[in-house]
Amino acid sequence: MKNIVKKIILLYSCIVLSVLSVDAQFENEMQAANQLYKQNQFVEAYDIYNRLIREGHYSFQLFFNLASTYYQLDSVAPSIFYFEKAKQINKSDADLEHNLSLAYGRQQDDIDKFPELFVVSFLKKISGVFSSNLWLIISLVALWAAAILFYFKNQKKGFLFEKQRWLWLLAFGVFSFLMAYLNNYYNYSTDYAIVYKAQTDIYKSANIDSENVLTVHEGLKLTVLDEVDDWMKVKMSDNTVGWLKKSAVRKI
What we know:
Elements: H1 2-19, H2 24-38, H3 42-54, H4 60-72, H5 76-89, H6 94-104, H7 118-127, H8 132-152, H9 165-189, E1 191-195, E2 199-203, E3 212-217, E4 221-228, E5 231-235, E6 241-245, E7 249-251
Antiparallel strand pairs: 1-4, 1-7, 2-3, 4-5, 5-6
Helix pairs in contact: 1-8, 2-3, 3-4, 4-5, 5-6, 7-9, 8-9
């Protein structure tokens, strides 16, 4: 049993150290782009941020900074798109909420929002305190600490090594894992899209000859329900459902 616990501790130690490792080159590039942004050299800053994304980098600050750059360049749809990408990682950032509201202020459509159930709203708020990755890190650290305390519970004395302490850490680790799952579920199980075309029509069915439900403009956020050939079935915040061309939107 002790050998198994030792292996688990070693495994968790390797995972935690791997997750916490920092890409120095990425940080240097970000600092260079941030400096260009501060100097109002928005096109040059955009070039670096965009290249980092093409290289596969994924972080809240990268998306936030690129969205802010697009905003300064008066690009409404890309600005909202990348602010929403940043929000998938961290929902509770005050600067993000402020900037996103400014970006949506440039969006032309005025569509009412359908009220959300309290339980769903509460779970979204709790799981959104941290990103799913951070919740997962917290979970791994808590479970790693629980394994250590379990291993030493009969060998050492003191507050930390009392027999039940490891159970609290185990419970917290499981809770954090659940929050990571919910955060990922609410942010990634449902697909969203941003209208990129300056103006596009939404139809009652996947046919350009069908009834026109309404016309929407760039920057509008839509829930993706289905995709058929070059058509996408979407739902708006007021629960209106219709079809539009895939080429008019970009999935978040």
